[in-house]
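BUG-257 | component: ligand-complex export | severity: low

The export step for BJW jobs runs without errors, but we want the raw record kept on the ticket for reference. Input record follows.
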Amino acid sequence: MPSDESITRAAEWLASARRVLVSTGAGMSRESGIPTFRDALEGLWAQYDPQELATERGFRKNPRRVWSWYAARRRRIAEAVPHAGYHALVEMEARLPSLTIVTQNIDGLHALAGSRDVVELHGSIRRAKCLDRHHPWPGPVPDDGAEESDPPPCPVCGSPLRPDVVWFGEMLPEAAVERAWRLAEECDVLLLVGTSGTVWPAAELPAVAARAGARVIEVNPEPSELNHLAAAYLQGAAGAVLPRLAAALTERRMGDG
Ligand code: BJW
């Protein structure tokens, strides 16, 4: 666990920042019971290559398998509730002049916790669109509850529905990328939480921020590929470290006032 001194120092950086960018990955949701992307390939799915499941090619080859994998994950996400680390970020947003979250996660837990400024880089599992023409499905994603089922057809063009997430080889949503990169260039502190830093272009954000002069703080039980960029490494789980950081920020502000 990080020392009180390292938490206090990181809280001071946050308190004196004009703009804070929080960049989250799958590890952020683990304590809410949502497996990381790699963990999600456990058990029944361990026999499949991510490139088979999270690519358009994989979906076209076996739409039933990919649709069913996402249905199983969507059901698990629907039952998940944000843990204390999520609430700590909501508290930090209320206390700081500007805090935005850029997430690679598709589970929507930041919004559910009450964070107001969230940029989703990899889409959302809570939405669907059609494969060929990207017509959005209106409303909650259909689910017949079966362990395996075929994707329903798009009511507009008949092409199969797919989750509205970003698969390997696909472009990220342009507006989200533009905003995230601008925020990385402008922030004073980038708080990096629960990402392995292996998937691009999201993995580039901390380097963009560091090059522009920001301090990077990493929260992760294991050092990520981006750990060398961190001015402070708070080794531990998001649900344990972020509440300590929010509490130190609050204490500091009360001391100021
Ligand atoms: C905890 C914890 C706790 C555990 N608390 N922490 C440039 C260079 C090299 C490659 C590329 C490149 N540009 C593009 C590529 C190819 C590709 C890529 O990056 N491949 C890599 C495998 C190398 N990128 C793309 O294809 C992207 N598109 C793109 O670049 O378009 C332009 C283009 C188009 C065509 C050709 C070329 C360029 C799209 C990437 C989309 C990624 N999509 C996925 C799936 C989303 C839907 C789904 O979930 O099914 O997004 S992949 C998957 O990985 C998912 C995640 O968001 C993403 C990142 O994973 P993350 O968050 O880092 O999680 P994990 O599981 O890796 O790590 C968990 C971490 O948590 C660990 O560090 C733990 O220690 C930690 N942890 N418990 C805190 N309690």
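Assignee comment: Attached the raw record above. The chain is about 35% helix and 15% strand.
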